[in-house]
Amino acid sequence: MKVLHVVGARPNFVKAAPVIRALAGGARQTLVHTGQHHDAAMSQVFFDDLDLPRPDLDLGVGYDSPSAQTGRILMRLGPVLAPDRPDICVVYGDVTSTLAGALAAAQHGVPLVHVEAGLRSRDRTMPEERNRVLTDHLADWLFTPSPDANDNLANEGVAPARIHLVGNVMIDSLKRLLPRTDPGRVLSRLGLPANARYALVTLHRPATVDESAVLREVLGVLAEASRRIPIVFPVHPRTRARLAAASATPPGLHLIPPLGYLDFLSLEKAATLVITDSGGVQEETTWLGIPCLTFRDVTERPITVTEGTNTVVGRNAGRLRDAIRSALDGGDREPRPRPDLWDGHAAARIAAVLTCEGDRAAD
Ligand code: UDP
After folding, report:
1. How confident is the model at residue 81 (pLDDT cuts 50, 70, 90)?
2. How many other C-beta atoms are found inside a 10 Å radius of the C-beta of residue 330?
3. Contact at 8 Å (CB) between 336 and 307?
4. 204 flagged as catalytic
5. What are residue 31's phi and psi, to 5 degrees?
6. Residue 160 C-alpha to ligand 1 middle, in angstroms?
7. What's the whole-number average pLDDT of the chain?
8. Which residues have CB under 8 Å from 297's CB, separation 6+?
9. pLDDT band at residue 80 using 50, 70 and 90 as cut-offs
10. How much is the pTM?
């Protein structure tokens, strides 16, 4: 079986690594990096930490608008798909490269696999939501992380035979790397003691950082919280640009470049509290049992709230202030069981389905 994987952004690398590993031996694999995230801190460090193979091809689309990136991916991926047609094309998650890879596969008649299918925020103003919906409706195999995703796809009329509940591939990477994490090593680089209490922050969604009024309010709340607890904030390139444009340099925060996966996981597992607008971070904190405040109005990952440690605060600085206060004042939470199938074996389940279907197609 010839498998083409299309990846382009930080969360893609975390999701693709276990699938590529699970398919090794049984498939001829080609890895295409679109270049959506291309600098060392957003790309190479993930290849190193996750033992990803070097991409066979880098499309070099660079930082640009989603439309420009999509156009370049379509133009540059076509010539790869046409001459040596893969049996399947695998795309991951909900970024621009996900939908562009899906469109390219559809245009060239290559069967499409979507890993992390079926998640829905029901907020079509989010680019990620549009990417999810469109990719799912182009896909031939849809691998879902949780039962709510199956329900969403069923409600949208996706044929049940295409949908496979396999669990969460992000947790495959997390479980594999966890033994190598070392919070003390990362904290010492920040001048913090190994047993420090701290809040870890990631914010990068357009809805959070593109409106300078919202960004300033959030930074104000974080600066206020930093009087109670150190705030460690690895800053995404998009956020860095917005901070520079708004000339905003909040006092009291550890604003640092984006961290590699191993370093970020190290800080995540020992954090007192995580504040985020990321999708993946909501899932990782649920698995780790770390309280998470999500600075968004909705989540496409409701299981992190119903079964996990996540609280969706809303995109409101006052509510974030209150939520931080009650999280810091509150006692330890009762540990909860982890969501079903978030067990480190999701990629093995994906490989089993694809290998079985591939053999059937070859018969
Ligand atoms: N992450 C990381 N370094 C950071 C921030 C996040 O390695 O400085 C990891 C995090 O552990 C998770 C992934 O990046 O695995 C989430 O990516 P992101 O928040 O960019 O995307 P989303 O999950 O929102 O699509």
Report:
1. confident
2. 10
3. yes
4. yes
5. -110, 120
6. 31
7. 94
8. 123, 312, 314, 315
9. confident
10. 0.96
233 lines ligand 1 (CB under 6 A): no
Length of the chain: 363
* DSSP label of 233: E
Q: Is residue 201 packed enough to be buried (19+ CB in 10 Å), middle (13-18) or exposed (0-12)?
A: buried
CA atoms of 28 and 22, how far apart (whole Å): 12
The separation between CA 68 and the C-alpha centre of its own chain, rounded to angstroms, equals 22
37 within ligand 1 shell (Cβ under 6 A): no
Identify which of 160, 157, 250, 176 has the alpha carbon closest to the alpha carbon of residue 17: 176
Name which of 306, 301, 309, 305 is nearest 335 in CA terms.
309
Q: Indicate if ligand 1 lies below 6 Å from the C-beta of 8.
A: no
H/E run at residue 69: helix 66-81
d(CA 15, CA 33): 14
Decide if 119 contacts 301 (C-beta within 8 A).
yes
Distance CA 40, CA 48 (A): 10
